[in-house]
Amino acid sequence: MHMLFITATRLGDAVISTGILAELLRRHPGVRITIACGPVPAELFSHVPGLERILIMEKQPYDLHWLKLWKACVGQRWDITVDLRGSATTLLLRSGRRLIMRGGRRPGRRIEHLAALLGQTPPPLPTLWSSETERAQALALIPPTQQVIALGPTANWTGKIWPVERHIALWQAIRATYPQARPAIFYGPGTQEAGLARPLLDALPDALDMGGRFTLTQTAALLARCALYVGNDSGLMHMAAAAGTPTLGLFGPSRASEYAPAGPRAHWIAAPGPEGEAPIAGLSIETVTSAALALLKENAA
């Protein structure tokens, strides 16, 4: 069997889509899969079972990236095509079963909209795949004897970023209760992400620097070793939740009703005020600290 799976350009959306991808792999053991996605999340799928190839879609004028994708896929007879971008591409391919996600934004959790394509309730949780080597490397960096608390101070726009001084105050409160704990700062590649993380790295000189130099699958393995992740609404937040890490997502003007983290130990808190309009600065240090400490206690080994 051959399956084409067209998913997101953004990391967070791509992570959310891994739940139905894992469910399709479970339902169709041995299927050979081609994944089409944007360049940012592409390495997320590098260890998917049955992977044949990853087609990277870079936006082109006049939607020519869709024509390029069609040309790359038209020679194959597909047993299943899944299009989470709502395009007409799969309608123009030789395909057995087609699953097409209607385009546009709508109320409700994104993960549930995706699960509706499969008629699955409750929705399958996101899944991350990493290699045995990557898991061994993560174990070496974060051994079982070390309690590491992951902080995610970045996001794709400033309105979603909880002030860095509050991340610092949060860490001070965690260390007062868990003096042997060590912080780890997670952020994405590129100068913008590094710049957003730098003030927190400077303020916490003993922090593990977990940004920039790791692949997404290495990052997944590292997140799975952490005792807690606290961070802004971002792709890394979704990765932490999918990795099974106790996760506390921080929401301000973004909508938790649509993009709350999904995972076996995922939680979130939102700033007070109308959803989609509440400034994240309204989220107090005390509120976040209380929730973070409660998560640590709840998930203590």
UniProtKB/TrEMBL annotation:
It comes from Acetobacter suratthaniensis. Gene3D superfamilies: Glycogen Phosphorylase B (3.40.50.2000). The lineage of its organism: Bacteria, Pseudomonadati, Pseudomonadota, Alphaproteobacteria, Acetobacterales. PANTHER family: LIPOPOLYSACCHARIDE 1,2-N-ACETYLGLUCOSAMINETRANSFERASE-RELATED, TETRAACYLDISACCHARIDE 4'-KINASE-RELATED. The keyword Nuclease does not apply. InterPro entries: Glyco_trans_9 (IPR002201), LPS_LOS_Heptosyltrfase (IPR051199). This is Glycosyltransferase family 9 protein. SUPFAM superfamilies: UDP-Glycosyltransferase/glycogen phosphorylase. It comes from the Bacteria. Keywords: Glycosyltransferase, Transferase.
